[in-house]
Inverse folding.
């Protein structure tokens, strides 16, 4: 399964106040990271509806990273606590339907943790690269694909 | 059955209840159907026995609230849990319902056959208390019944032993059968949203066509929206025309609620809801 030439697509859902700013810090600090992550900025981890993660996998993500403020550090006080409780259920649900935990990652990265962000992202990318492409949805999506040659 | 009718008649006569949501016999059959008795004559048609499968709590959030009097409802102990869940979630108030609890001796899986160990509804296998608690009145007598194999639990254990790819293939085959009729949603006492996420079109998160992709999203989101809330009445699988084992997902979520939070929804009307609350000491070990 593992393919050295395989470059995974990782969709990251990050909160505006901590992780996005942390990733920004990583950039301004000129820290190097692998270019496989696509960041989607949301107001708070509490705003992340699990349907976002499903959509990410539907549209070709091989892995997902969800990241926000550390506990007790949420800009809105309790958003990340609510989010954490949801994740406890949702990662098990994904696992039950065949999207394993090795493709769904969670982290707390604060605005000052540029270095941690780089480590987390590189770690997730390496793990998903090892896991290989996520074939489940690719097969389903072919159902919707146009024939290769379309005569107009 | 006469005791039930007597209580229903009294509640209607004294205007305590504006109507009684109960069961009536389907003519020429032993099957029952949901039935709303609005006067004493209609209350004479109410029945209760092992053929009363429906969870009538579903009507509490869908029926027009009466101007005077309470909504009367005939409820087995599993249905009482659904009512308590609705109370916990502030969908109804306790003084809006008049609950006639019925002691239950198990209900059938297939209404064409008599009750037996083999023909026992899945939920009855899991039943922890056949006597309803916290109702306004209780009728009938609960007889012990023989429990059968826990098919859902077995299948779930089997599924857990498969590889993720095999699990995905299993659900792909199951969800392929889904025709997006939303019977699971309509039959569910806890699916009461006025606008379901599946009906929202801007943006459309869940594809509306009955394709595997949209079916996957729909069934996963429904399972997630019921996580820590499902009371296990099994009405979704019973309503499903495609026989998708929806209770597998719901049971799994219920097991997580029990394992991680020692929580069972619908047990106590004063408990906060599980996903609507949080604790600083919630599990954190899976987060980097």
């Amino acid at each position: 399964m593992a393919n050295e030439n395989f470059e995974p697509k990782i969709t990251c859902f990050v909160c505006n106040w901590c992780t996005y700013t942390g990733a920004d810090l990583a950039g301004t600090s000129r820290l190097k990271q692998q270019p496989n992550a696509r960041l989607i900025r949301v107001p708070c981890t509490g705003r992340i509806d699990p349907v976002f993660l499903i959509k990410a996998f539907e549209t070709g993500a091989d892995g997902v990273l969800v990241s926000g403020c550390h506990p007790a550090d949420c800009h809105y006080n309790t958003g990340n606590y609510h989010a954490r409780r949801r994740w406890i259920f949702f990662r098990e649900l994904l696992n039950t339907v065949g999207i394993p935990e090795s493709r769904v990652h969670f982290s707390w990265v604060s605005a000052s943790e540029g270095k941690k962000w780089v480590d987390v992202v590189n770690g997730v990318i390496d793990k998903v690269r090892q896991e290989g492409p996520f074939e489940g949805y690719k097969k389903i999506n072919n159902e919707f694909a146009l024939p290769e040659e379309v005569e107009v | 059955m006469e005791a039930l009718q007597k209580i229903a008649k009294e509640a209607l006569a004294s205007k305590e209840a504006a109507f009684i949501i109960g069961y009536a016999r389907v003519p020429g059959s032993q099957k029952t159907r949901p039935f709303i008795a609005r006067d004493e004559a209609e209350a004479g048609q109410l029945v209760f026995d092992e053929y009363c499968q429906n969870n009538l709590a579903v009507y509490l959030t869908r029926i027009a609230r009466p101007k005077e009097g309470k909504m009367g409802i005939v409820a087995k102990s599993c249905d009482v849990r659904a009512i308590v869940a609705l109370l916990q979630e502030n969908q109804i108030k306790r003084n809006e319902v008049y609950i006639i609890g019925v002691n239950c001796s198990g209900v059938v899986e297939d209404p064409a056959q008599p009750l037996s160990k083999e023909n026992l509804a899945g939920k009855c296998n899991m039943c922890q208390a056949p006597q309803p608690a916290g109702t306004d009145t209780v009728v009938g007598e609960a007889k012990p019944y023989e429990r059968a194999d826990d098919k859902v639990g077995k299948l779930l254990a089997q599924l857990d032993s498969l590889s993720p790819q095999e699990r995905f293939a299993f659900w792909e085959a199951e969800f392929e059968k889904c025709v997006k009729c939303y019977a699971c949603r309509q039959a569910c006492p806890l699916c009461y949203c006025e606008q379901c996420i599946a009906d929202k079109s801007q943006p459309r998160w869940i594809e509306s066509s009955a394709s595997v992709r949209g079916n996957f999203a729909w069934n996963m989101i429904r399972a997630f929206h019921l996580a820590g809330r499902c009371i296990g009445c099994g009405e979704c699988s019973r309503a499903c025309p495609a026989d998708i084992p929806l209770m597998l997902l719901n049971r799994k979520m219920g097991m997580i609620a029990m394992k991680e939070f020692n929580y069972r929804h619908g047990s106590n009307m004063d408990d906060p809801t599980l996903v609507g609350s949080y604790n600083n000491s919630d599990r954190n070990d899976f987060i980097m």
User: Anything to note?
Assistant: Chain B has a mean pLDDT of 90. Strands of chain B lie at 17-25, 32-37, 46-47, 70-75, 97-102, 137-139. The two ends of chain B are 59 Å apart (CA to CA).
